[in-house]
Each structure stands twice: as structure tokens, then as C-alpha cells.
Amino acid sequence: MIAGHKMRYASIRTLRALAILTVVLGHLALVEVKFGQGATVLPAFLIRGLGGIDLFFIISGLMMVITSRGKFHSGKRALSFIYNRLVRIYPLYWIYSFAALAAFLIHPAWWVTNAPENWRDLLVSFLLLPSRRLPLLNVAWMLIHLIYFYFIFALFLWLLKEERLPAGLTLWACWCWPVKPIFVSAAAPAQLLTCCCIPTPWSLLPDVF
After folding, report:
1. pLDDT tens digits for range 65-104
2. Which of 58, 182, 84 is nearest to 132 (CA)?
3. In angstroms, rounded to a whole number, what is the distance separating the alpha carbons of residues 3 and 40?
4. Domain's final residue, options 13, 36, 67
5. What span, in angstroms and rounded, lies between the C-alpha atoms of 115 and 155?
6. Percent of the chain, pLDDT > 90?
């Protein structure tokens, strides 16, 4: 029985790795189009690999449910859950963000769609707060959604009994589905609009700053 569970988890992790790989290849294809000056090596269909982001979110949600069995209806465990997730994201993200900020200060022309206009844009970007602007490190838009996902799930861990999780997730899905995307902007390239148009309740809120 234990061996069977390990095999299933290994299969899920393999699928998640493939989803990440397709996203990386998709971004490489976009970078090549942007900076290749017309000469491309990677086939254009790799851009469709950005759809692996959806699969990654599905797998992440599945793993959260599996690893949280027996931990529901507990404020302490909800806090532990959100703390463990945030410390896995922010330190490494800040390292890359400072590197991106240094590159921006050296060569601002590299940033076209998400160049920060003031210190508030930088603060929102570094804290991964919801905004109608892409963060300085534009691929971090996914982390904004992921953190939002974590906080909602932590709320479920705190308030719901385990058997009521399906009902909670269903209500959340009904709330999110009709809401307009947050990142739609005339300045954003079509490729980013394709991967950023994930409906969230944030679009009902004003910008943080």
C-alpha cells in the first residue's frame, strides 16, 4: 500500500516537472522572439507550453489537499501552512528581484511592459501584492496568484472541517469564474495576456496603492 502511494506521488511529481519544463521552454521561445532580432532557433509552437501553468496550478492544489489530510479546522496548522509556503517563495524571489532591479537600473530599455514608475510599483512588486501592473520580474505574476491560492487554502484549513472542503472549493470556484482578469492592460503583450488571464476576485478591488 505504501509503495502504491509512493508511485502515485512520483507520477504526480513527474507530471509537475513536465509542466514546469513546458513553461520554461515557452518563456525561452518568447525571449528568443523578443531579443533574437528575427533569427529564431526554437519552434514557435513552444510558446503554447505556457499552458503548462494551468496544469501546475491543478497539481499544486491536488498536493495541498493530499498533504493536508487530518489538519483541517485548526488555526495553528493554518498558520504553519502559510508560513511554510511563504518562506519557500519570498527569500529566493527577493534575490532574483534585486538582480532584476539592478539590471533595470543599468539598462532600463530592457523593461518595456512592466518598468516601475515609482517606489510604490517596486514595493508592490517585491511584496507580490495584487496590482494591475505586472511585477518587475514579470514571470512572478504566477507567484501572486499562487500566494493568493495559499491564503485561501489556509483560510479553509482554519475554518472548515475536512469533509466540507469540496463545498468550500466549489463556492470559491463559483465566485472566481465570472470575475474579469486583473492583468489585462493595453500595454501588456499578447503573449502575457494569454497566460495572465486567470479570473480572480482581485479585479473587484482597487490597486493596493
Report:
1. 988 989 999 999 999 999 999 999 999 999 999 998 898 8
2. 182
3. 45
4. 67
5. 34
6. 27
Q: Are residues 56 and 101 in the same domain?
A: no
Query: What is the per-residue pLDDT across 146-191, written as a single tens digit (0 to 9) for each?
Result: 998 899 999 999 999 999 999 998 988 887 776 544 433 333 333 3
Q: Are residues 93 and 44 both part of a single domain?
A: no
Residues 118 and 40 reside in one and the same domain: no
Q: Indicate whether 209 and 110 sit together in one domain.
A: yes
Q: Report how far residue 201's alpha carbon sits from residue 209's, in angstroms, rounded to the nearest whole number.
A: 17
Identify which of 128, 124, 121 has the alpha carbon closest to the alpha carbon of residue 147: 128
Q: What is the domain extent for residue 136?
A: 71-209
Residue 197 gets the label, from left (phi > 0), alpha (psi -120 to 50) or beta, of beta
